[in-house]
Amino acid sequence: MNKLLVLCFAIILSCTNSVSQKTTNGQQKGEILVSESQGGTGKVEFKIINNVQEYAKIFEKNDSELKAEGEEAVEKYPAFPIDKKVILYNLGNFNSGDHRISEIKNIYVKENTLFIEVPEYQSGGMEIQMTSNPWSIIAVPSNLKFNTVELQYSK
Known about the structure:
The protein is α+β, with helices and mostly antiparallel strands. The model is unreliable at about 15-25 (pLDDT under 50). A four-stranded antiparallel β-sheet has the order 1-8-3-2, with helices on one face. Strands 5-6-9 form a three-stranded mixed β-sheet, with no helix packed on it. Strands 4-7 form a two-stranded antiparallel ribbon. The protein has helices at about 1-25, 50-65, and strands at about 30-35, 45-50, 85-90, 95, 105-110, 115-120, 130, 135-140, 150-155. It starts with a helix and ends with a strand. About 25% of the residues lie in helices and about 35% in strands.
């Protein structure tokens, strides 16, 4: 009887340990710094932004492409987070709809790939056909180590 009690106690302890490890990984949050529907490269790719100068160049390039001649850039962008890894992610080329990233549900690394879980895009039905090249700048914890980045759409 004592052996059975010890076995049950060991099983309960092993279950609680695995749950707490999963919670720790789930607490890693990504933050959307900027998400725009135009100005991306047209192909799916990412780049790690290493410093404030690279960060500023992104906005200079996109502001000059999007503003009319003689206008000043109106939009202000968030400060560069020093304690996180900053990623420029181009989502590719889309023919219609607004494909900006509006929320990050979860992030995790598996086999050197950073997975960014975002809500699935919901089409509104009849949409104006307009080509867009959306891009986002995302900040993730600096302790994550990865070689590639993938968006993972979920409901």
